[in-house]
Write a structure and sequence with these properties.
The structure is a homodimer.
Chain A lengths: L4 H16 L11 H14 L3 E5 L7 E6 L6 E7 L19 E3 L2 E3 L3 H21 L6 E7 L9 H7 L1 H4 L3 E3 L13 E3 L1 E2 L1 E10 L5 E2 L9 H12 L20 H9 L3 H10 L10 H10 L2 E10 L8 E2 L2 E10 L5 H14 L5 E9 L2 E2 L5 H14 L4 E3 L7 H10 L3 E2 L18 E3 H17 L5 H4 L4 H6 L4
Parallel strand pairs in A: 3-6, 3-7, 7-18, 8-17
Antiparallel strand pairs in A: 1-2, 2-6, 4-5, 5-19, 9-16, 10-14, 10-15, 11-13, 12-14
Helix pairs in contact in A: 1-3, 1-13, 3-13, 4-12, 7-9, 11-13
Chain lengths: 470, 470
């Protein structure tokens, strides 16, 4: 079935601009109801039966269903909320006035995650104009709290197991077209334990003249932190690595065959010449995917303004996140951390849990993954770059797997790229990526539920071996 | 010569209230000219010949001279500037509206250091009313930058060596009356090296998902800090302790005989039950006086707001102060610190000097000190509590000693006490301490230049042995 590519691109852009005019900042509880209503209206206009799902005091998650031919049901996940805009003066155009410049659309949320929603919706509309019915049933959930770690999502999923049930799920997707022309596919995410450590040894700050006799909260915190990690980054908490399983052979092969894009992109994003241990290529990607970490996200004590204040601080705090690999459970790591601190005599250090997420993903050999990989190859003419496990964490996956038992994948239907500046000022997408994402999405909706024979001629021999009909 | 104590107390209080209405916050360059003019006018009214000393862009230091009988010249040091008011909402009355409450005067600067200036001036006035001439010549310098570490003071002293020359100096003084009824005397101050350590490893913050491969500035800073100090507080920089001389026998005796006030006061001020190593009594005071320290005054990296932000910070900073004992030169310690960091491979850590001060003081056996001690004993009826070396630092002493070679002492002519909350909200003095400070100051001005015979009957045998005429 032919696609009027240009027309669908224009439609996607219009939808995206409409959504980007909404300042739906979840951290500020801003314009969430309005954006949920706009999202619902857009789904309704494309033929979905919709409703708003709410639990507790959270904003609505928008739900829609569009019945199609055949027995295959695909669940789509997106979010309509966005990050705060950050330093407004760094934006070259107002964050909530979508602006076309240099072949790009600038707006908060353009890349994360309104662009993907717009692409998916534009493709659905085009398919429905061509034939009355899609070859598969779509269910869609668009939540409003992803940027604040989806605090109500698990409860929403648990309360609507029937409505959300599906054969496969497309999570928030990954780059539609890497710089080497390949599509990218991600199948797993690390888990996380985020904690705050607080030490308070005095009721109020002392003059630092008393340092010879008054105990120091920042020194005490530093000793505790130093006990957690070697200088090579190895975590020194007993038992931390016990459940860690290495990468499977399939994962190693995928990592080896993946694009260098992550390396170049990360290098440019943070402005460094070399990575830890001068890692490059497959070794770098393997470390990023499979090594659990203990990161200091923040630390604060005493005076940090201009000049100098000779104070002995009463308290000190550190914010840590542990990124975890499969079988490293956050609750177990928390227990190990607590007993480590106790065993080393750091009784005065208070541990507060700031967030947890299980490591989650889908096996690279899973038929859904293999089908997405083949479709991506069909569209781009080359095998996609597969990341078995992102360094990031996507808490929603755990809920989808736990309550719905639905396999999922982050597919290349997202019109963003390494330079999109998601979460930063001047967030944008390249217009060309809308076209790439549409091509993949169109092919996916048409072919996901088809018997494999239709695709066989396009698949590489390596992929053909691994794939099975599902 | 009898003193109309009540009348002088009232005069001191009036002068103090007048000065405390000036919001002379040096850190904010606020009302400094006005306060310098008021100070000069007050000195002029008491018979001083005055002028304003200025160097660079700094505010004026007010200078005055009042010639008296005899050959002894005493230099008085005070400062008219005050600390910022801090959180205004914590003040029970406006900081620059001096308020009498519960036998106390509340105002920013009441304790630090306008109260002492008012007491000294009220006593001078009373003496001049009684006799036309004082028995000694007074020279007085009142600077306006003490609370920001006296950045122009050294140059001012160097430029006015002749005008400031004297036989002895009263530095900013110490508590007129401790809770056990004794006066206090301090003769030495620790030196200081204040530095900021900065590590910047990335151009911008990374997502903490990249922690497995991107180097961490806060972890690197923590490693460097951990290398500087043992958990028992011992500094691990090679050569740091080499020049350290222990306390002299006279200093040890003074420490042993000193009041417990510092212990109780400090305990209450910071709200702790016990000090490092459960130190108490003379052992605690000895440690506070003679142990050099490495203190973390501040540390900051990454996100420290509400909630959690999964960031891998691009940079990290720490503010350290080393408190130094005699013969530990700040420039030498700085060189040792730099070579320590270099030798341990911390090349990426940038060291910025934020301030230095030499350890400085006067020998406890010095005739000026012994004379002040004897006068304090005369006034209170018991030997004063002598601190050979405060944990704090008074940079002005180095300038006075270097350029003028004038011995000095922190005498009990200051109407403040442990609970005065200098630098904090609700700064105040107790009215009764004005009376105590006046009694000491009056006796000092009358007797400092007198032959020892007049005082002999009052001195303890121990003190008599050590004293010599000067």
């Amino acid at each position: 079935m032919a696609l009027d590519q240009e027309r669908v691109e224009e439609a996607a852009l219009r939808i995206l601009e409409l959504l980007c005019r909404q300042g739906s900042v979840s951290a500020e509880a801003r314009e969430l109801d309005e954006t949920a209503e706009l999202t619902e209206e857009l789904l309704r206009g494309a033929g979905f039966e919709t409703r708003q799902l709410r639990v507790g005091g959270g904003p609505a998650a928008v739900y829609g269903e569009l019945r199609g031919r055949g027995n295959y049901t695909l669940l789509l996940y997106n979010h309509y909320d966005v990050q705060p805009v950050g330093p407004l003066e760094l934006w070259e155009s107002p964050p909530f006035e979508p602006t076309l410049r240099d072949g790009k659309l600038f707006a908060r949320g353009a890349a994360d995650n309104k662009g993907e929603f717009a692409v998916r919706l534009a493709v659905v509309r085009a398919l429905r104009e061509a034939e009355r019915e899609l070859p598969l049933t779509l269910r869609w959930i668009v939540e409003g709290e992803e940027e604040i770690a989806s605090p109500h999502f698990d409860e929403i999923v648990r309360a609507h197991v029937e409505a959300l049930g599906a054969d496969g799920c497309l999570w928030e997707g990954v780059t539609a077209r890497l710089s080497d022309g390949r599509a990218s596919v991600a199948v797993g995410f690390k888990g996380m334990l985020a904690v705050r450590l607080d030490v308070r040894l005095l009721e109020s700050d002392a003059h630092s003249a008393a340092a010879a006799v008054v105990p120091s909260a920042p020194w005490r915190l530093l000793e505790a932190l130093a006990s957690l990690r070697d200088s090579d980054g190895a975590v020194r908490i007993d038992g931390f690595y016990d459940p860690v399983q290495g990468a499977t052979e399939a994962e190693r092969q995928a990592i080896a065959a993946a694009s260098e894009t992550m390396e170049a992109g990360l290098r440019e994003a943070v402005g460094i010449d070399s990575f830890i241990d001068d890692l490059t290529g497959a070794a770098l990607r393997e470390e990023a995917s499979f090594r659990p970490t203990c990161n200091i996200a923040g630390i604060k004590s005493g005076y940090s303004g201009p000049g100098f204040k000779a104070v002995l601080p009463a308290e000190a705090s550190a914010w840590l996140d542990f990124r975890l690999v499969p079988d490293q459970r956050p609750d177990k790591v928390l227990a190990l951390l607590r007993s480590h601190l106790e065993r080393h005599g750091f009784d005065e250090i208070e541990v507060t849990v700031m967030g947890t997420a299980e490591s989650a993903g889908t096996s690279i050999d899973h038929p859904l993954v293999q089908r997405v990989v083949r479709i991506a190859e069909e569209v781009t003419g080359q095998p996609p770059s597969i990341i078995p496990r992102m360094g990031a964490t996507l808490p929603i996956i755990t809920s989808l797997q736990r309550h719905l038992d639905v396999p999922g994948v982050a597919a290349p239907d997202n019109p963003f790229y390494w330079g999109s500046r998601a979460h930063a000022p001047n967030e944008h997408i390249r217009l060309e990526d809308i076209g790439h994402a549409i091509k993949f999405t169109h092919s996916l909706f048409l072919n996901l539920a088809s018997p494999p024979s239709r695709l066989l001629r396009l698949a590489s021999s390596r992929l053909r071996r691994a794939s099975t009909w599902f």
